[in-house]
Design a protein that fits this description.
Structural class: alpha/beta
Radius of gyration: 15 Å
Helix content: 25-40%
Number of helices: 8
Strand content: 15-25%
Oligomer: single chain
């Protein structure tokens, strides 16, 4: 089971990784500063396999690819939200971070709860309840399985 980290509506890319940190030389160095303005202890507490759950318009703001990249580098298994900013959604898929839309799960899950996301079935389960979420088409699941769009394309060239 994965632990849930709950965030609200309109979490923007500058809140995910503030602009002063994107000048650091690598995503590995940036990840320690994820959500510094909303939850300064987040990067220390999140564990590989944990889930982020949020409200509407997650990832709004700029098109910086570092926002989903730091979440992936921290080991976040998936981001589940009521809705996503379109550019964040595409960037997340492109770098291999699963993003699932589920208003039902976003409203029901509590911070610190244990939940499991099944990307293939489009289900989130927690506390004996199941919540439907977007079921990604097979080609998008392939991109995620490959670790992102570039890796997926490279596999097809070889």
């Amino acid at each position: 089971m994965s632990r849930v980290f709950l965030f609200g509506d309109d979490v923007d890319t500058d809140q995910i990784i503030a602009s002063q940190y994107i000048i650091l030389p690598s995503v590995e160095e940036m990840k320690a500063h994820a959500f510094a303005s909303l939850d300064p202890s987040f990067a220390d507490r999140v564990q590989p396999g944990d889930l982020l759950v949020a409200g509407e318009n997650f990832g709004c703001g700029s098109s910086r690819e570092q926002a989903p990249a730091v979440l992936k580098a921290l080991g976040v298994k998936a981001v589940i939200a009521k809705s996503f900013a379109r550019i964040f959604y595409r960037n997340a898929i492109n770098i291999g971070l699963p993003v699932l839309v589920s208003a039902e799960a976003a409203e029901a899950l509590a911070d610190g709860a244990e939940a499991e996301a099944d990307l293939t079935e489009g289900l989130v389960q927690s506390g004996g309840h199941s919540y439907l979420c977007t079921k990604l088409p097979p080609h998008m699941q392939d991109i995620l399985q490959s670790g992102g769009l570039i890796a997926w394309l490279n596999e097809r060239e070889g």
